[in-house]
Design brief:
It contains ten helices and eight strands. With about 240 residues, it is an alpha/beta fold. An eight-stranded mixed β-sheet has the order 3-2-1-4-7-6-8-5, with helices on both faces. Helix 9 runs antiparallel to helix 10. The longest helix is centred in the C-terminal third of the chain and has 16 residues.
Length: about 240
């Protein structure tokens, strides 16, 4: 069938979600997209009203879920009608004709993968970090690059591990690499550098490195969450 369901987890994204949904509609073919599922984890800023205001003929669906990206994305996958799931953050914009690029990879039997990524920042370090996402290394992967995966493979590996409050994307990517089921599409997605701008580039990068290191050394999902809350959680 090769049809895509786009799944977007949100929490208080009123400033981003309208722009993103318009972008997705404009830069993809309705023939390739069965539905766009926005999974709200309890927004209080009116995000849900923005989504509900879209024309119902565009197949944009709002569903509610317990808070937590892993829980929200798994919830969205249950509603998906397409045979390809495309998980996308609310502040990330995939390349034009992203749907065609994803379908071409699946037709080549590449069942999971992502795009290269650029930050919307001119800072030299973030430019370098963006360039590193073009390398074929698992260490260069992350959820901000978005994630496509066939529904069959997603169900086979059990979806996202909901014990992870953070780092759920990297856990899924680790499983896919272990199965040799990952490809990086050589097209560029643009994502927001808002976390770096909020906390400072060097502080944010340092703590992200610590989280990666802690995970590699065997830290539990609970320990990773505690570290993130202490050092990078939103005020």
């Amino acid at each position: 069938m090769n049809k895509i369901s786009i799944i977007i987890p949100v929490l208080n994204e009123v400033e981003n979600i309208h722009k993103l949904l318009n972008y997705l509609i404009k830069n993809s073919s309705r023939e390739n997209i069965t539905d766009i599922i926005v999974v709200d984890g309890g927004s209080t800023d009116g995000t849900n009203y923005v989504v509900q205001a879209f024309d119902t003929s565009l197949n944009i669906q709002l569903v509610s879920s317990a808070k937590g990206r892993a829980k929200q994305m798994n919830s969205g996958a249950k509603y998906a009608k397409g045979d390809i799931l495309y998980f996308l953050h609310a502040d990330s914009y995939p390349p034009k004709r992203f749907d065609e690029h994803i379908i071409k990879e699946v037709q080549k039997r590449n069942n999971a993968g992502c795009f290269r990524m650029r930050f919307d920042s001119g800072h030299w370090w973030l430019k370098l970090s963006s360039w590193l996402t073009a390398l074929p290394l698992r260490a260069s992967r992350g959820g901000d690059q978005s994630q496509f995966i066939t529904k069959r493979l997603f169900n086979k590996i059990g979806g996202y591990d909901e014990s992870f409050a953070i780092y759920e994307d990297n856990d899924l990517i680790k499983k896919l690499y272990a199965l040799n089921e990952f490809v990086v599409i050589p097209k560029w997605l643009k994502t927001s550098a808002r976390c770096y701008e909020k906390h400072g580039i060097w502080k944010t990068q340092f703590h992200f490195w610590r989280i990666h290191l802690k995970s590699r050394l065997g830290a539990s999902p609970k320990e990773l969450k505690a570290y993130y809350i202490e050092n990078l959680a939103e005020a």
